[in-house]
Amino acid sequence: MEMTGHPVSQPVFTAAERWKKRLPYVIAYGVLALTTLPVIFMYAWLILRSFSDKMVYGIIPVDFSLENWRFLWSNIDQRGSELPSIWTATRNSFLFAGTLTVLEVMIGTMAGYAMSRMEFPGRQSLLKVTLLLHAFPSVSLLIAVFYILNFMGLYDSIFGVVLVKTALQIPMTAWIVKGFFDDVPWDLEWAGLIDGCGRLKVWFSIVLPYIRPGIAAVSIFSFLSGWSEFLLLYTFVISDENITLASYLQRLISDPNTVNYGLLSAVSLFYMIPVLLFFIFTQKSLMQMSVGGGKYV
């Protein structure tokens, strides 16, 4: 017997019902647009101001020029004194951020593994105290850090500030990495141990590759933290040969009455370029980050 198909009728929505259905999306996108518009405007102003001699009414660029970018090929004269080369500051910033990243990731991964996998006296207390150590702001420790660096002969040394910054960052890094180690099945480690591998080889050859997204994410945060560091470097590094980009920017705005906003905008954009490139090439790893662990402490 032949079946006769009947077309399925689609529900018909009135204009009011369609608007009611779209209203949450309209509100969400409207709020996002309003909150991001000032940020977009600030970046647009920064770019336009860096390539113009002046701004009419503060927002309209006039006379396209590369004069504000002269710091790339010559030193800047600031109130009668010559600032260090921008390339010296850039080299020191990369040195500081890179060394910080290497130390923080190395020590943080070992500490995170110990807190996740090993049983030792005082482990529970250590887990609680670790986050407490991260809670102290850098500014509250400046005097104590000064005495320690001066005693060790590391005052006015980039490496000395690297050690201080690493010590302040490790507690949070260890906790984040611990969450990734918690998600690693014990069976993987037992299989390696049964095959004759030592604990260190299992950790290096089996466990670390398994948590590669976590290590990448921690590395990104470490580098960005080092690249944007200002307070410790400004306080404990005073010589021109050890200046970083953050301190270089501070030199440009040290006197509010003589600030060259075109030059300041250009240097600020130059300071942002490595961070933007770093984020573009590492955002995939950053989006895979998770601080949750599957195992309870």
Automatic annotation (TrEMBL):
One of its GO terms (cellular component) is plasma membrane. The chain crosses the membrane at residues 26-48, 94-114, 126-152, 158-181, 261-281. One of its GO terms (molecular function) is ABC-type maltose transporter activity. InterPro entries: BP-dep_ABC_trans_perm, MetI-like, MetI-like_sf. It is found in: Cell membrane. It is a multi-pass membrane protein. Keywords: Cell membrane, Membrane, Sugar transport, Transmembrane, Transmembrane helix, Transport. Residues 90-282 form the ABC transmembrane type-1 domain. Its main location: membrane. Gene3D superfamilies: MetI-like (1.10.3720.10). GO terms for biological process: maltodextrin transmembrane transport. The keyword tRNA-binding does not apply. Pfam families: BPD_transp_1 (PF00528). PANTHER family: MALTOSE TRANSPORT SYSTEM PERMEASE-RELATED, MALTOSE_MALTODEXTRIN TRANSPORT SYSTEM PERMEASE PROTEIN MALG. Belongs to the binding-protein-dependent transport system permease family. MalFG subfamily. This is Carbohydrate ABC transporter membrane protein 2, CUT1 family.
